[in-house]
Amino acid sequence: MEEEPYPYNTPPWRRSYSAESPDGSCVATISEAWEVNMSGPTSDQLELSNGFELNDCSPVFIWSVDSQYLAAPQWIRRLFFGPKQRLLIVEAENKTACAVPTK
Q: What is the pLDDT of residues 82-92, one digit of tens each?
């Protein structure tokens, strides 16, 4: 597979990304990410191989070493202030996600 040109070969601007959990039980994939705003980072639907899906996630995610959790940034679209990111912790086995509280 040919590497994308800069900046699309750097994590925040990836057009796609896939990461297998350390134990190989699950794969997280974003297959066709697009810019959140002009010249901004990218986002698309995060799909887990167990069927769980989350919208508007950034292709910069990572599995915990025990394969139970996936940390993934998610974009929130706001009416007047532009997009904002929050961090989701996904529990793959239970197909649940919770947002990390922000100040």
A: 778 999 999 99
Three-state DSSP state, 91: strand
- Tokens standing for 4? 């994308």
For the chain, domain boundaries: 11-99
Question: Whole-angstrom Cα distance, residue 3 to residue 69?
Answer: 28
Token pair listed for 78: 């706001």
C-alpha span between 27 and 66 (Å, rounded): 14
pLDDT attached to residue 17: 94
CA distances from 3 to 8, 15, 16 (A): 9, 11, 11
Q: What is the pLDDT of residues 44-66, one digit of tens each?
A: 999 999 999 999 999 999 999 99
Using CB atoms within 10 Å of the CB of residue 91, give its burial: 0 to 12 exposed, 13 to 18 middle, 19+ buried.
middle
Q: Which residue has the tokens 């990390």?
A: 100
Largest CA distance in the chain: 43
Q: What is the pTM of this model?
A: 0.86
